[in-house]
Amino acid sequence: MARGTLADTYVAAIQHDLVELPADATRVGVVRQPTSWFHAAVDENRPALGPPTELLESMRDREEDMKMQGLCEEGAHNAAWDQVGFGETYREYLETDDAQAALAALEDRLASGESLALVCYENTEKKRCHRTILREWLEENGP
């Protein structure tokens, strides 16, 4: 059986029809603390694949500091990402037992031919996002 396709997008793109996903793709949220309106845009959510709460909080705190210094929202977000080592820390988190179990479940689904679309909040044309790292991990570590 052919491996399922893997896509990713952000919730506003789904809500405003700005993205074309495979018709059969299951929309899998990958956020730690989804809002009620987020749930309405996805088929399911896997909080274990969202960034750890401590990492999100340090990122938000640093981002707010950068905005107070006059950086625009996107600039503050991307600068804070680098300053807190977000990418590296998230990759390390993906090696933990909690994340590994959730990753294995997605891998099994892809291997069985199911198409998945990873969904979170950030528009990656403007801001860096953990789902890009997550997608790369699934593409690199899949069968």
TrEMBL record:
Protein name: DUF488 domain-containing protein
Originating organism: Natrinema ejinorense
Pfam families, per the entry: DUF488-N3a
DUF488 domain span: 22-142
